[in-house]
Amino acid sequence: MKEYVIGIDIGGTFTKFGFVDREGNSVAESSSPTDTYDNIDDYLANLVKELKEAEKKLSSPYKIIGIGIGAPNGNYHSGSIEHAPNLKWKGVVPLAKLFGKYYDVPVRLTNDANAAALGEKVYGGAKEMNDFIMITLGTGLGSGIVVNGDLVYGHDGFAGELGHTTVLEGGRQCACGKRGCLETYVSAPGIKRTVFELLADDSTGSELVKYSFEDFDAKYIDEPAKRNDPVAVKAFEITGQILGRKLAESVAHTSPKAIFIFGGLAKSGDLLFKPTKKYFEESLMGIFKNKIDILPSQLMGKSAAVLGSASLIWNELK
Amino acid sequence: MKEYVIGIDIGGTFTKFGFVDREGNSVAESSSPTDTYDNIDDYLANLVKELKEAEKKLSSPYKIIGIGIGAPNGNYHSGSIEHAPNLKWKGVVPLAKLFGKYYDVPVRLTNDANAAALGEKVYGGAKEMNDFIMITLGTGLGSGIVVNGDLVYGHDGFAGELGHTTVLEGGRQCACGKRGCLETYVSAPGIKRTVFELLADDSTGSELVKYSFEDFDAKYIDEPAKRNDPVAVKAFEITGQILGRKLAESVAHTSPKAIFIFGGLAKSGDLLFKPTKKYFEESLMGIFKNKIDILPSQLMGKSAAVLGSASLIWNELK
């Protein structure tokens, strides 16, 4: 009988899901709104309705063997979403337990970056690695750390918040309440903030002057950078410098075999990877130099968040 | 039959050892020179002679069940000392293997801070903890990170080098070759450098003006600080600020239940702990605030390095 894990990726606006087999094929994928439900019970009832609908597309016979969920502030230890700033359900939401009303299978929950790290291990470039770090670059900077073959959850389930290590005391205001956090510099909005800082300082001329702050999207700098636009090139240089130096600090903690970069910004390829690697190597202690790879995630282009969430269950069965 | 593990702590000048039982009692302790031997074979032959001599003090019947070694740049994976800057034996020294000529028991090797972390877990304040960090403050800043109940060795055996994360780009020259490393600020020599920087800047008067740089010892600031000497107080404030902020970054990596501080500087008690905790809490992300302890090591005053080294073996048997 074909076995599937339901992989669910809960974002602030949409919830995506798919039925993932042992080999990492995700079928009957669909999505359902997140932010139209003020009440978690209503949200869940609708999500389950959508899941049952999608299930009809699976060829019989099949069996659902578990549910893996990636969610903001998802706590693996408790199976709860705890105080997620970008969700409407406040406080502690015992999501794994609530799912028990509908499905009699194991339900595991963690945050999206941890799920992505597991996905890289189960289905991506980290299959043979016991020690690596996953960095997800999107509207924020998420991270999942794998040590001795296992995800690092920490004593409270919230380990791996590299996006909120400090780049500059008193620096840019972060949504977390602190200032100078890494994700205010290295993320899609972060590189946009850098571009506008550079434009304010620039006197050499840049084609990026035509955008308003609200209309500007981080992906608009790729083409100008390839044409050697000074502001676009410098924005990547600065972003890579900050990221490379910070990753060197993470190496001093857990000494990973590789660091994978996932998400929109990673698609910029060498524009981002080249300066990142340069400053990374420069900042490493001697014993770590020239032996740690910075690589694009091999989940790019796939339903990475859904695969990652499903791998919470598949990884346990390995 | 009484079982012992030989715990060996290899320092640049001396090698200390003891016979450690399951309960953490270290008996027949002694020491032997390290730096008088240019050749590892001569060093080892003499060390084994001293061990056999000390063994005579043990009451029969007894059994040696293993050897645990803490050494600079000790690599757990390979059992070798690799390129230790403060030892005369250059390159890679396969110490665990060399011991095999003399003792037919398991031999484990790691660096001194990792050994201290395991000691805290087996015999000290971390008995019930699966996630914690050990910081050793002496002539350098060492660290051992425990995650999911196990030491973090990293892919190459060298994880846990928090002393070489960067406080300030282009800052103080570190013995590792980099600049601005944490241990150039937070360590016995680090706080001394801070005192002399403050004296150069001070106009309020300090009793510390009477020392030459070469004669000054970090422990000389405790009493003046208690008498509110402005330079001594400020040196602790700055040291605690730098340490507290850096420890908050480590929390963002592995979310430990507690951070233990060990070594000479930790003996300064509240003079160091108070500012460290203040800046630590201030720098933590919201989800980590008010739940992570910074504590003095419970191995203080004991033969911590010997106990820690021995716990490499005892921990495996737990």
Residue runs with pLDDT of under 50 for 5 or more positions of chain A: none
Share in helix of chain A: 25-40%
Any idea of the CATH topology of the largest domain in chain A? Nucleotidyltransferase, domain 5
Please tally the helical runs of chain A, counting DSSP H or I stretches of 4 or more residues: 8
Report the structural category of chain A: alpha/beta
Q: What is the total number of structural domains of chain A?
A: 2
The greatest interface here is: A-B, 46 and 46 residues
The overall pLDDT of chain A, averaged over residues, is 94
As an assembly, this protein is homodimer
Within CATH, the superfamily of the largest domain in chain A carries the name: ATPase, nucleotide binding domain
Distance between the termini of chain A: 18 Å
* Widest sheet, order of strands of chain A: 3-2-1-4-8
Overall 3D form of chain A: globular
Strand content of chain A: 15-25%
